[in-house]
Design a protein that fits this description.
The complex is a heterodimer of chains A (about 325) and B (about 260). Chain A contains 14 helices and no strands. Chain A is mostly helical. Helices cover about 30% and strands about 30% of the residues of chain B. The mean pLDDT of chain B is about 90. At the A-B interface, helix 1, helix 9 and helix 10 of A face helix 2 and strand 6 of B.
């Protein structure tokens, strides 16, 4: 049984890995300035290629595609971690306010500094971490460290963040600021450049690698608190660290891209329907699934219309059929 | 006489300012299976939770293998005392083997990961419970009896000198209840561990345990080592909380009837 299951698991990992590689390769080519395979090979091999093609590829296309992989993988991994820690299949990366805080920070930056991408990203990141900090502080203040307390504290902080965003929208200039706040909340990878990507990498990897290293501790948080404690888990400390790492990953991803709907919620479900088990492998497959969905969504976002389509629209329309496929085939017993 | 592995001295426990258990003292020796008997609300579960560190002691001491467990962190305490709760977690989608592997947690460092040997130990624990054929199955899809056996296998992996069980038989049917208690008793006797179990059914306690501790109103009102007890002594002891009862001997075992 176990060997059969491992083969089943391996099959999905190979399949998901191949899909990500193909989507990555396609993503490098498509866009308003399409690049041929020959041009991409020439850039890597030092061959002859136009300066425009080289510039587009190295400063925009490659960083953007890498960001799509990282943000998708980060949201997929964080989503699976939140679902496991909160024992709730509807838990998304925003359950402790990471996305709402980013939205609040970005809106504040737009009002205060106009549409400076660097300021929006910096404020979004700080806003996200501040809101998560308040959620953790509220939960600690109640001295009732259960997951329900975190969910309630998350609801409170999200409501406060949204109320402040509404105040800012109310006073915002409808032509420029209001539109920018709304557009940021729909997400886009259009603002990614090599330098901006490098700027968020340390934060992203601190969160992402931290979650990977903590996988043994995360798995055991799926138990009820008393049961975890009697197995030796310092539940309060581990939960705060894990939520902090997951929120750091999400904040580092969305501060540059804006809000990305659905990936953090749907990727863990697709991975679970495929593997049928909750384990570290599930978290990794969820990360691969998130990366694939975002790569495909971003490729469409910059190629199906003359203007760039907000990413959240596409992640939803791509994610839903994938989930429906797995749900249908699972019921039919094909997977 | 074997040494005491679990020793409670003048233990008082409560919730906030409300004292639920007070002045409890008793010892469980190596290789001894002790039943904590009492009516609903007598303080059995509260006492058990305080012994395994889920509730702080108001006063008194609790030694496991000579170590004062109240002074230890959860991580250290889990090397001395294991606990099987009344209701275990759902663990949706977690494989049986992974559920058993969780028993290794307190023996691994923060950034240490289970090895192939750890996995083998977990598999062997499942084999002892005759559950190894279900190693890859989804824990949440097992029957209640099978789940209890898996949790027991996890306790074996945790490998502590003292094991506490809070009504582990409550969700089990007639046969599984006896099977589980028989397995637990066998392990405690063969591995020289100390077991403390809360039970509602005095007949099961007499049949499977070596030592009875009766708790009423948060205090220990009687205790009895069964190896040397006569039917009359058992009746007298149990009648202090269950009213008038009769202990009938049948093929070397006792059946308890309420009059």
């Amino acid at each position: 049984m176990t060997d059969t299951y491992q083969n089943h698991q391996r099959k999905y990992f190979i399949f998901a890995g191949l899909l990500v590689i193909v989507a990555f390769a396609v993503s490098l080519r498509v866009g308003r300035f399409p690049l041929s395979v020959g041009e991409i090979v020439a850039i890597f091999s030092g061959g002859e290629v136009s300066d425009i093609a080289r510039g587009v590829f190295l400063t925009l296309r490659l960083p953007r595609t890498i960001m799509a992989v990282l943000a998708g993988a980060g949201l997929g991994l964080a989503g699976s971690v939140f679902q496991l820690v909160f024992k709730n299949p509807l838990a998304s990366p925003d359950i402790v306010g990471a996305a709402s805080g980013a939205n609040l920070g970005a809106a504040a930056a737009i009002i205060l500094f106009g549409q400076s991408v660097v300021m929006m990203a910096s404020f979004a990141f700080v806003g996200s971490m501040v809101v998560v900090f308040f959620v953790v502080a509220l939960a600690q203040m109640t001295r009732n460290n259960s997951t329900v307390t975190y969910i309630l504290a998350g609801i409170i902080m999200k409501a406060i963040s949204e109320a402040i965003i509404m105040i800012m929208k109310f006073f915002a200039d409808p032509e420029s600021e209001l539109a920018a706040i709304e557009f940021w909340a729909m997400g886009s990878l259009g603002a990614i450049t090599a330098s901006r990507l490098i700027g968020i990498l340390p934060f992203f990897f601190a969160g992402f690698v931290g979650l990977i290293l903590a996988h043994r501790h995360i798995a055991i948080l799926g138990l009820e608190d008393d049961e975890s404690r009697t197995l030796g888990v310092p539940v309060k400390r581990v939960r705060v660290i894990v939520l902090g790492l997951a929120s750091l990953t999400v904040a580092a991803a969305v501060c540059l891209t804006g809000l990305i709907a659905f990936v953090g919620l749907i990727a863990p479900h697709v991975a679970r329907l495929a593997l049928k088990r909750i384990s570290f492998a599930w978290c990794v497959l969820s990360a691969l699934t998130g990366a694939f969905i975002l790569l495909v969504a971003d490729s469409f976002a910059r190629s199906i219309a003359t203007v760039e389509i907000p990413i959240s629209i596409l992640t939803t329309f791509i994610g839903v059929p994938i989930l429906l496929y797995f749900m249908r085939n699972r019921r039919a017993g094909k997977i | 006489m074997s040494e005491p592995l679990l020793s409670l001295q003048d233990v008082s426990v409560g919730y906030g300012s409300k004292v639920v258990v007070s002045g409890v003292s008793f010892q469980v020796r190596a290789g001894e299976f002790c039943a904590l008997l009492g009516l609903n609300g007598s303080g059995k579960t509260t006492l058990l939770k305080s012994v395994c560190g889920l509730l702080p002691l108001l006063s008194g001491s609790c030694l496991a293998g000579g170590v004062d467990c109240t002074q230890l962190t959860e991580y250290r305490r889990a090397r001395h005392i294991s606990y099987i709760p009344q209701r275990h977690s759902k663990l949706l989608g977690v494989s049986v083997l992974d559920a058993v592997m969780m028993g290794h947690y307190s023996k691994l460092g923060v950034l240490e990961y289970p090895t192939r040997e750890n996995r083998q130990v977990a598999y062997e624990a499942l084999e002892k419970m005759s559950m190894s054929h279900l190693a890859g199955e989804d824990f949440s899809r097992l029957s209640e009896g099978q789940k209890q056996m898996v949790i027991l296998a996890r306790t074996l992996v945790q490998s502590t000198p003292v094991t506490l069980m809070d009504e582990p038989d409550s969700a089990l049917d007639f046969l599984n209840r006896r099977k589980m208690l028989g397995v637990v008793r066998g392990l405690i006797h063969s591995e020289g561990k100390a077991g403390l179990v809360t039970l509602h059914e005095p007949g099961l306690a007499i049949e499977y345990c070596d030592y009875l501790v009766l708790i009423h109103g948060g205090k220990v009102i009687a205790d009895l080592r069964l190896a040397t007890a006569s039917p009359a002594e058992i009746e007298e002891c149990l009648s202090q909380i269950y009213g008038k009862i009769t202990a009938l001997e049948h093929k070397g075992r006792y059946v308890v009837l309420s009059d």
